[in-house]
Design goal:
AhpD-like, globular, peroxiredoxin activity, AhpD_core, AhpD family alkylhydroperoxidase
Length: 137
Protein backbone atom coordinates (compact mmCIF):
# COMPACT_ATOMS: atom_id res chain seq x y z
CA UNK A 1 0.00 0.00 0.00
CA UNK A 2 1.37 3.44 -0.87
CA UNK A 3 0.67 4.95 2.55
CA UNK A 4 2.74 8.07 1.78
CA UNK A 5 0.48 8.91 -1.18
CA UNK A 6 -2.71 7.98 0.66
CA UNK A 7 -1.97 10.21 3.68
CA UNK A 8 0.79 12.56 2.51
CA UNK A 9 0.26 15.29 5.07
CA UNK A 10 0.23 13.09 8.17
CA UNK A 11 3.08 10.85 7.00
CA UNK A 12 4.95 13.97 5.89
CA UNK A 13 4.76 15.33 9.44
CA UNK A 14 6.36 12.13 10.73
CA UNK A 15 9.27 12.51 8.32
CA UNK A 16 9.63 16.22 9.15
CA UNK A 17 9.78 15.33 12.84
CA UNK A 18 12.42 12.72 12.03
CA UNK A 19 14.57 15.35 10.30
CA UNK A 20 14.11 17.80 13.17
CA UNK A 21 15.20 15.30 15.83
CA UNK A 22 18.38 14.59 13.90
CA UNK A 23 19.04 18.28 13.43
CA UNK A 24 18.50 19.03 17.13
CA UNK A 25 20.94 16.35 18.25
CA UNK A 26 23.73 17.69 16.05
CA UNK A 27 25.44 14.31 15.74
CA UNK A 28 23.31 12.84 12.98
CA UNK A 29 25.33 9.63 12.96
CA UNK A 30 24.30 8.80 16.54
CA UNK A 31 20.60 8.83 15.82
CA UNK A 32 21.13 7.09 12.46
CA UNK A 33 22.95 4.24 14.23
CA UNK A 34 20.09 4.01 16.73
CA UNK A 35 17.56 3.98 13.89
CA UNK A 36 19.37 1.12 12.17
CA UNK A 37 19.52 -0.83 15.44
CA UNK A 38 15.81 -0.24 16.09
CA UNK A 39 15.01 -1.39 12.54
CA UNK A 40 17.09 -4.53 13.09
CA UNK A 41 15.25 -5.28 16.33
CA UNK A 42 11.87 -4.73 14.66
CA UNK A 43 12.78 -6.75 11.57
CA UNK A 44 12.03 -4.00 9.06
CA UNK A 45 14.15 -5.13 6.10
CA UNK A 46 13.46 -2.00 4.04
CA UNK A 47 14.47 0.31 6.90
CA UNK A 48 17.59 -1.75 7.66
CA UNK A 49 18.74 -1.40 4.07
CA UNK A 50 17.86 2.28 3.96
CA UNK A 51 19.67 3.22 7.18
CA UNK A 52 22.72 1.06 6.42
CA UNK A 53 23.08 2.83 3.07
CA UNK A 54 22.59 6.20 4.72
CA UNK A 55 25.27 5.44 7.31
CA UNK A 56 27.69 4.34 4.58
CA UNK A 57 27.11 7.71 2.88
CA UNK A 58 28.00 9.36 6.21
CA UNK A 59 31.33 7.55 6.12
CA UNK A 60 30.53 4.72 8.53
CA UNK A 61 32.58 1.65 7.65
CA UNK A 62 31.01 -1.61 6.58
CA UNK A 63 32.93 -3.30 9.40
CA UNK A 64 31.15 -1.15 11.98
CA UNK A 65 27.77 -1.85 10.37
CA UNK A 66 28.54 -5.57 10.35
CA UNK A 67 29.17 -5.47 14.10
CA UNK A 68 26.09 -3.41 14.99
CA UNK A 69 23.94 -6.43 15.98
CA UNK A 70 26.71 -7.44 18.41
CA UNK A 71 27.65 -3.91 19.51
CA UNK A 72 27.78 -4.90 23.19
CA UNK A 73 30.70 -7.22 22.48
CA UNK A 74 32.41 -4.99 19.93
CA UNK A 75 35.23 -2.59 20.64
CA UNK A 76 34.37 -0.42 17.61
CA UNK A 77 31.70 1.74 19.27
CA UNK A 78 32.63 4.75 21.39
CA UNK A 79 30.95 5.62 24.70
CA UNK A 80 28.24 7.92 23.30
CA UNK A 81 27.34 5.42 20.57
CA UNK A 82 27.16 2.60 23.10
CA UNK A 83 24.92 4.65 25.36
CA UNK A 84 22.54 5.67 22.56
CA UNK A 85 22.41 2.07 21.29
CA UNK A 86 21.62 0.83 24.81
CA UNK A 87 18.85 3.44 25.10
CA UNK A 88 17.51 2.49 21.66
CA UNK A 89 17.21 -1.13 22.74
CA UNK A 90 15.57 -0.20 26.05
CA UNK A 91 13.05 2.17 24.46
CA UNK A 92 12.24 -0.38 21.73
CA UNK A 93 11.59 -3.10 24.32
CA UNK A 94 9.54 -0.61 26.36
CA UNK A 95 9.44 -2.64 29.58
CA UNK A 96 13.22 -2.47 29.98
CA UNK A 97 13.83 1.29 30.28
CA UNK A 98 16.45 1.81 32.97
CA UNK A 99 16.73 4.93 35.15
CA UNK A 100 20.50 4.32 35.22
CA UNK A 101 20.72 4.57 31.42
CA UNK A 102 18.68 7.77 31.49
CA UNK A 103 21.04 9.24 34.10
CA UNK A 104 24.02 8.34 31.93
CA UNK A 105 22.39 10.00 28.92
CA UNK A 106 21.98 13.19 30.94
CA UNK A 107 25.74 13.20 31.59
CA UNK A 108 26.52 13.26 27.86
CA UNK A 109 23.55 15.16 26.44
CA UNK A 110 21.38 18.16 27.26
CA UNK A 111 17.81 17.49 28.38
CA UNK A 112 16.53 18.58 24.97
CA UNK A 113 18.93 16.18 23.27
CA UNK A 114 17.75 13.35 25.56
CA UNK A 115 14.15 14.13 24.63
CA UNK A 116 15.01 14.34 20.92
CA UNK A 117 17.01 11.09 21.00
CA UNK A 118 14.15 9.33 22.80
CA UNK A 119 11.51 10.78 20.49
CA UNK A 120 13.63 9.87 17.47
CA UNK A 121 13.91 6.29 18.67
CA UNK A 122 10.17 6.12 19.38
CA UNK A 123 9.40 7.59 15.96
CA UNK A 124 11.63 5.04 14.24
CA UNK A 125 9.70 2.30 16.02
CA UNK A 126 6.46 3.82 14.67
CA UNK A 127 7.86 4.18 11.14
CA UNK A 128 9.06 0.55 11.22
CA UNK A 129 5.60 -0.59 12.22
CA UNK A 130 3.90 1.47 9.52
CA UNK A 131 6.30 0.11 6.88
CA UNK A 132 5.91 -3.49 8.09
CA UNK A 133 2.10 -3.26 8.30
CA UNK A 134 1.37 -1.21 5.18
CA UNK A 135 4.47 -1.00 3.02
CA UNK A 136 5.63 -3.09 0.12
CA UNK A 137 7.67 -6.03 1.39
Amino acid sequence: MDYKAISPEAIGYLYKAHQQFRKNIGEERLLALAELRVSQLNGCAFCCGYHAGELRQMGVSQELLDELPGWKLSGRFHAKERLVLQWAEEVTAIGTVSPATLQQLEQFFSRQEVVDITAGIALMNALNRIRIALGDH
